[in-house]
């Protein structure tokens, strides 16, 4: 018996959706019949070159020079060499910033908030004016095509302005959030040798003022290639710029440029570098993942306009920092003419409703967040459906980790009934998604609605066979434009090959563990390298977390496999509510809950209490680091963690030496 959908779009919504218009456009242009999304998806992966070319036409991509060919080779991947030799839209030139700045009117472009209560608004005309000014100053600092400009900044309008000014010059942008430690910043930016470093004086978080000045000096000393440092006075108390060598105040960058200066958009090849993003770096120095101009733009236009139904009348919000790929994804919303809403700070300060207060005031239509946030909202008993008016809200997006079935129920019960809840999954590696939402499809509990158009996603068993309704490795069998153009300092591509092609030669293996459902949706069970293997049976950690989250006393948990007597046993660590401690009764309740809703193999051999659970800066729990700690192995790069001190709660636990 098939599951019943928890939400279905109305006939009117389906008819008005951009993806419906795109399907009709293809039927007319290609003289084909595409009756529904499965037919459209199948066509997109069987005709990948024609599909991606149609995206450039439908989304009105402005090429300075048109491509000679869409794809150099359309054959299925046969080896990694073929994959890395693929060239998209060869011969074409374009500029990413030009697309994000194509709107020049007084419509709001960016509305930003921080914890101090400050609200700022920029129109598209004002945004263009400020990008022009900053572009002029960066050019005067010697920034040219291919140079790197980096930002250690809060999620604020200045970060977007700096990125757009950088991209307009054909230079490369890379950013991190200011809560990274000194080593975390240097480990990232030090590898790519930036010419300009833009940093904030401090930021606000959870009711506290965080002063970045001491850290800023340390970072400056360890980035010898930086020619200029620009300091954004983000706090009310200004920083004395004279204390910092070769430093300029951000306000000086906004000075009106000479009257004859016009913002020129540098022509870039389709696969010229645009962004450098970083792997989490919890097992060594972060990998520098380079993303191209054209691939990033095309993928984001497709995901925004077709999969999220974003138009120039939408108000788009995603709770993110500048150190997470969702910031890059969010910013590209300007290319569709939408209004972006930014928030920097704790999503629970001063009240758990702070983001919903903002959503109501700004008429947010697409609200993006993490699965962790939605689960925490439910624990805090926040019910926006009762406390807020959200008539504009049409979609809620969730990523970062699998969204549990119960969180689906919570959204429809306590946030809004008529909303498209899209759990999405992809990653830094592709700066986009493999599976995501669709405004014309039903929503099923626990499922991502569909595989992305043009993304030939399958799930493979250990024999390399495609499977449905069973758990396996997420792979992509065809090339796609937002593949990384390479890793920084990887001239022979060996690191690139090892990262994605060592499991199944010639097939992109993403590292996620999940399944394709009979409804055509996707379930993600966690990272493949965190899969537990007791008795040789593979178990995704998300299956355990989903059950543990239902125990009221538990705030969050982390499960790892411990080597034990020539096998692996499951160990579950739990962080409990304040003033609650782990008793035999609570342990029994946790184990019983897991057993009743999964299988006996999912039940942990040990349940142990910890005061905190380690996470990356972007909020993802780090099973690999915990697994290393309990096996007395070295965790190479704790500076990549938001709370590295939490690892000590797992070290030397006597309980792990016992039956």
Automatic annotation (TrEMBL):
Residues 550-620 form the AMP-binding enzyme C-terminal domain. Pfam families: ACAS_N (PF16177), AMP-binding (PF00501), AMP-binding_C (PF13193). SUPFAM superfamilies: Acetyl-CoA synthetase-like (SSF56801). Keywords: ATP-binding, Ligase, Nucleotide-binding. Residues 103-479 form the AMP-dependent synthetase/ligase domain. The keyword Ligase applies. One of its GO terms (molecular function) is acetoacetate-CoA ligase activity. Its EC number is 6.2.1.16. Residues 37-99 form the Acetyl-coenzyme A synthetase N-terminal domain. Signal peptide: none annotated. PANTHER family: ACETOACETYL-COA SYNTHETASE (PTHR42921:SF1). NCBIfam families: ac_ac_CoA_syn, PRK03584.1. Belongs to the ATP-dependent AMP-binding enzyme family. This is Acetoacetate--CoA ligase. It comes from Spartinivicinus poritis.
